[in-house]
Amino acid sequence: MLSKEENELLCRVGGDAPMGQLVRRHWTPVCLIEEVAEADGTPVKARVFGENVVVFRDTDGNVGVLDEACPRRRASLVYGRNEE
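-> C-alpha cells emitted (84 positions)
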C-alpha cells in the first residue's frame, strides 16, 4: 500500500509536480479528432494535466492546441474566431 507522500508524488500533475513534469514530456490525447473535424470551426475547450487548453483546426486542416487564456488580455480563446 502506498503512503500518503507516495500517492501525492504519483497523482499530482499540476504546476511543478514531479509527475506533471514527466507526463508533459510525452504525447497525450486531449480530445477526439471528430470534435475538431471542420477547418476554421469552433474551438474546443479541454483540460489536461490541470491546465485549460483550446483545441482547433486551422484553415489548412492542421490541428492546434493553445493555452486557453489569451497572453495579452487573459480572455478565453474558446470565444475567439478561427480564420486564416
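The first helix runs from residue 4 to 11.
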